[in-house]
Specification:
- The complex is a heterodimer of chains A (about 270) and B (about 325).
- Helices cover about 30% and strands about 30% of the residues of chain A.
- Chain A is an alpha/beta fold.
- In chain A, helix 3 crosses helix 4.
- The longest helix of chain A is centred in the middle third of the chain and has 18 residues.
- Chain A is globular.
- Chain B is an alpha/beta fold and about 325 residues long.
- Chain B is about 30% helix and about 30% strand.
- The chains are: A alpha/beta (about 270), B alpha/beta (about 325).
């Protein structure tokens, strides 16, 4: 047996500079283009690096999403993944990490049953939802251990991995029994561009599409996982109040005026 | 709606950090709007001792779980301890700190308790029938309003948004919950403190950041002098990090850290959307730049046009002078 790594990737809008339909309380999606969540590039790269160091290792990319998710899976293959699984569940097309983590956990169970999984890698967070907890939440459903904010995978065998988790004031060095879920951060590596060989493979790849039923999900599962925290609406953040330009005849005068205001507002 | 609210207080290196008091303040806020009651969970190797420091008014009871294996951030063992505390009780909302460990623990508990989770909430309240919360998405370009429709939901509280609950009361009754850890799939190997003694960006009240406009790595000397004077953390734009002037751990923005200080100094940072995404919710933004037309100068609360190497030392000197006088 050799290592099997799954890397979860998400198709997200190529910009975070989105606009909102305030009446409908929704994001305006018309005209948005999609690509691999930039943070997921680090997770794919890490999976491929582990594969390169462990001959025989296999990398499977997994994505939950609508039609454009398939293109992101092809991108993962171009970057070095061996195969991909597309989970297509329209009900999950929301910003609800509880429901989506449950659906992804179900897909991972199926992948794990077909070919035992050792490690599941994730990006820091999705550039749209920004939650950054899916790795740990999925691990919770599967009863696997998890670490998010990982800046280094120190070692990995088929039984365990040692990871460095960057926290506010330092690093937690953790040993996880495998299978485990690991959320990465940018410091972990520098992603390479897709190779020519990878691009060829991505064109030829046959990507299976799994539905909710195929991963064992029923309608009542969605009502219990998508409903508990119901999204009422999206709205634009309030604009920042107009700023004050500090002027003066000299730099010294400007510096003095600025410090006056900061002291007056009790900021220094 | 269940009216009992649990504030989970997590120690960092043996003390309760500011995030614990922010969680208590968010919980009290929710309680006041829902005629609810606030309970606190304190977990750690010296939880009972820590509980004595929770002299915050308005807490009904503290539940403490204590064990030597809780000396470190072991998610598995903390989840076991928290499950033991929650067992047999009903909480409508369980609030966690928005730290890396707090978010990780909340996510794990969400799946275990089969309860929804909303992370990084910046507002929480209630109307007659439901708990409501708000969080940002798309790097601050959208706000999501959500409400709770089931008995229990989990929330992580965005750092630096809620004021810290004041220690003006006396510590409430503490109930020690007997806890013996079961086997864990995670083993805590070691803690490596941040090499420098620098202030953490995520919880800093003041941040001084430098960008491409500094021109070279030496520029961070003047940035550090101003930061030192203000007791501020040092931040940087991606351009400064990519140029190798300062390590990645200082990067603020889309691919770095998201910060919410009361005061943010942007020195020589033009204000590309990627940087604004990480800091535009700061209280007061001061921009220093030779270019009056750049986006940061338009976003800023206070903007000063000028040469950075002239302005920054003058501002540092002026603050020192005013403190002295």
């Amino acid at each position: 047996m050799s290592l099997h790594i799954v890397v979860c990737v998400k198709s997200t809008p190529t910009t975070v500079n989105i606009s909102i339909d305030e009446t409908a309380g929704k994001i305006k999606t018309a005209g948005l283009s999609y690509a691999m969540n930039p943070f997921d590039e680090y997770a794919v790269e890490e999976a491929v690096r582990i594969k390169e160091k462990n001959p025989g290792a296999v990398v499977t990319a997994l994505s939950l999403g609508p039609e454009h998710a398939e293109a992101v899976l092809r991108e993962a293959i171009a970057r070095g993944a061996d195969k991909a699984v597309w989970l297509n569940i329209p009900e999950c097309d929301t910003h609800n990490s509880y429901g989506t983590s449950h659906a992804l956990a179900q897909a991972l169970k199926k992948i794990h049953a077909e070919s035992p999984v050792h490690l599941v890698l994730f990006g820091k967070n999705a550039s749209d939802g920004n939650a950054g907890v899916t790795a740990a939440q999925i691990a919770g459903w599967l009863n696997w251990p998890a670490a998010i904010s990982v800046k280094k995978i120190d070692s990995i065998t088929e039984a365990e991995t040692i990871v460095w988790r960057a926290i506010e004031n330092g690093v937690d060095v953790l040993k996880l029994k495998l299978p485990a879920c690991v959320g990465t951060i940018k410091e972990i590596n520098e992603p390479r561009l897709p190779s020519l060989k990878g691009k060829m493979a991505s064109k030829k790849a046959v990507i299976p599409k799994w539905t909710a039923a195929e991963v064992g999900l029923k309608a009542e599962d969605f009502s219990s996982t998508l409903e508990p925290l119901k999204i009422e609406k999206f709205s634009a953040p309030p604009p920042r109040p107009a700023g004050l330009k500090i002027e003066g005849a000299s730099a010294a005068e400007k510096a003095k005026k600025l410090v006056d205001i900061l002291i007056e507002r009790k900021l220094v | 709606m269940e009216n009992q609210i649990l504030a989970v207080c997590l120690p960092q290196q043996g003390v309760l950090p500011s995030s614990a008091f922010e969680v208590l303040s968010a919980a009290k806020n929710l309680a006041s709007q829902s005629q609810g009651k606030v309970f606190a969970a304190v977990i750690g190797d010296k939880a009972q001792e820590l509980a004595k420091g929770l002299t915050v008014s308005g807490i009904e009871k503290i539940f403490a779980a204590e064990h030597p294996k809780l000396a470190h951030n072991n998610d598995e063992i903390y989840a076991q301890a928290l499950s033991k505390i929650i067992e047999g009780k009903k909480f409508g909302a369980i609030l966690f700190p928005g730290t890396i460990f707090g978010k990780s623990l909340a996510a794990l508990m969400s799946a275990r308790l089969k309860a929804g989770l909303a992370v990084d909430i910046a507002e929480i309240g209630a109307d007659s029938s439901k708990i409501k919360a708000r969080r940002a998405a798309y790097s601050g370009n959208a706000l999501i309003s959500l409400h709770l429709t089931q008995e229990t939901a989990l929330f992580t509280v965005l750092p630096m948004v809620f004021p810290q609950a004041e220690k003006t009361g006396s510590a409430p009754e503490t109930i020690l919950v007997p806890f013996e850890p079961a086997e864990s799939k995670m083993e805590y190997v070691s803690f490596q403190p941040e090499a420098s003694s620098e202030i953490d960006l995520g919880t800093a009240e003041r941040i001084v950041s430098g960008g491409r406009g500094l021109g070279n790595a030496e520029g961070f000397k003047v940035i550090r002098e101003l930061a030192g004077t203000l007791k501020a953390a040092v931040g940087a734009s991606r351009a400064a990090v990519d140029a190798g002037w300062i390590p990645y751990s200082h990067q603020v923005g889309l691919t770095g850290k998201t910060v919410h200080p009361k005061l943010y100094f942007a020195c020589g940072i033009s204000g590309q959307i990627q940087h604004l995404a990480g800091m535009s919710s700061s209280g007061t933004i001061v921009a220093l730049n030779p270019d009056p037309e750049c986006p940061m100068m338009k976003t800023a609360s206070l903007s000063v046009v000028g040469d950075l190497y002239e302005l920054i030392p003058l501002i540092t000197a002026e603050i020192k002078k005013r403190r002295g006088g």
